[in-house]
Amino acid sequence: MSASLGTVVVFGGSGFIGRQVVKRLAQAGARVIIPSRRPGLLSWMKVAGDVGQVLPIVTDTRYDASVAAAVTGADAVINLIGILAPSGRDSFDGVQHQAASRIARAAAAAGARHFVQISAIGADAASPSAYARSKAAGEAAVRAAMPDAVILRPSIVFGPGDGFFNRFGQMAKVLPFLPLIGGGHTRFQPVYVGDVADAVMVALTDPACAGKTYELGGPRAYSFKELLDYIRHQSGVPRRLLLTLPFPVAMLQAFFMELLPGKPLTRDQVTLLRRDNVISGALPGLTDLGITPKAVELVVPTYLR
């Protein structure tokens, strides 16, 4: 495996999924490059491999020349970058469409043999959500530049340090209630971060994956209400109230919460909650990659409490 991987450039390598991917790449013997606007803050990632094996470098994905320099000599490129809400100069279109396009075009020009794009279940050019539209635009741009690219669409990703179970677990500890937006009927199919990282590794090494799109979900779908109920029990506050917030009320609340640091809730996120976030069954998934998905119940209790 190590001989076939060579040099792998991982955009978003310091993120939640990226850290797991970089660890696996280093263990497989790859030379790993992690582009970042502030690589000096990523020195801790070097311990994922041998001396000199993992290298953070200065890169700004807003500029063609910077991205081209980052992928020079790459055998494979992985794009994991994404945002949950616009911030400063980072917009959905800029990060999840334009940057993805720039990275894929640069990878093609550099002669990279493999490309893996992390998208999301729900990516849809016709979606009312700007997040989902930008994910779809990013997929299309990657496909145009590198037709053999592998696209992975995970549902919400869980694991130690995740942004879903941990966020609501913290809310359950300090708030008198947890919000059931839209009545809590939206369905999710949480997927373990380790399974997503394993899927990336298979996508890089199995020629049969070339040009395909995979939907990544766990073994079971849950309603939003079921997940919040599970979170409050695992957080040790089973009596915490679940308060229904109709979508119009949630949109109004999100209007003000967008103004807070960290944007704990946005109107676009409320819009996303109007659609289920589960695998469609029309595309291949984890089992087609030879991966048995791990259940929420096997992992979340190890870190949430």
From TrEMBL:
InterPro entries named in the record: ComplexI_NDUFA9_subunit (IPR051207), Epimerase_deHydtase (IPR001509), NAD(P)-bd_dom_sf (IPR036291)
Residues annotated as transmembrane: none
Gene3D superfamilies cross-referenced by the UniProt entry: NAD(P)-binding Rossmann-like Domain
Pfam families given in the database record: Epimerase (PF01370)
Gene Ontology MF terms in the entry: protein-containing complex binding
Protein name: Complex I NDUFA9 subunit family protein
Native source species: Niveispirillum cyanobacteriorum
